[in-house]
Design goal:
Length: 344
Amino acid sequence: MDKITQVQDEALAAIAAAADPEELQQVRIRYLGKKGMIQALMAEMKSLPKEEKPAFGQKVNVCKQTVTEELEKRQEELNAGALVQKMEKEKIDITLPGDSISIGTMHPLMMIQQEIEDLFIGMGYKVAEGPEVEQDYYNFELANIPKDHPAREMQDTFYIDPNTLLRTHTTAMQMRELEKAKGQTPIKLICPGKVYRRDDDDATHSHQFMQSEGLVVGEHITLADLKGTLEFMANRMFGEGRQIRFRPSFFPFTEPSVEVDVSCPFCNGKGCSVCKGSGWIEILGAGMVHPHVLEMNGFDPEKCSGFAFGIGLERIAMLKYGIDDIRNFYINDQRFLKNFDRFD
Ligand code: PHE
């Protein structure tokens, strides 16, 4: 009987001393488990004289119950303590500033593209789209650049097969749109997109670059319309007071063809390092749509005429943002791109 009291006292002391739920579990196993001390007391009952058995059994039962109850109480205490501890450990200071989420920035070329699109949409132009993997037919043939035409050498091309290539200019999109129009005028389009040429990349050359091409076909469209349109664009993009000038040039799909310069926005035409002292900066190629191009696409060059121009977006972005290496647009260095973050 004393042994029972002793076991019970020990058990209660161990329960009280258990510091965490794991320790308490060990105590539970030690006293209440199948091979535990209380079970061992039960086993001892067999060797007792018959008359002592009931009192002994009853005392062991009381002991078992007491220990079980104390265990449960302590378990609850420890659980509550563990919760408090856990909450303490995982406490969040909601007054601390949060981690800022880094969101993407508009790419400078996209900014220029959108600026051009907005400007021309405002004048009633539609934005056309076309494939970058293009057929020779639209890129060259319909643009008055037949096979073996020397002009094809001007644009060293990435061919996929003899009839498929990466478009070398957005003029390919114009040809698709002209063909689609089936001789119906007016047409007023802006065609932005990536183009590809076999160039060795350096500070001013990239095998991939972006163009935005404009096309207007209708009755009585003249070189003066082209000039007025481009002057308007130059003023909007480079600031009021810009002048433009035409220099004769050659493109197989336009006649006459011109290179277009804008008066230098950095020195106002006086001459500086950007315009190399000339006061003028070349910004694009343009011309009147070649009558043969109109004809090939089902238009009557006696009844309608048109102008076209093609702008290199990198060049415009480099001028506007003072970027001196075209490769910056394509290596995606965050330090460069972050300069264009609208939220910084
Ligand atoms: N396609 C010409 C180029 O890539 C640009 C251009 C477009 C010129 C339209 C005249 C008219 O250089």
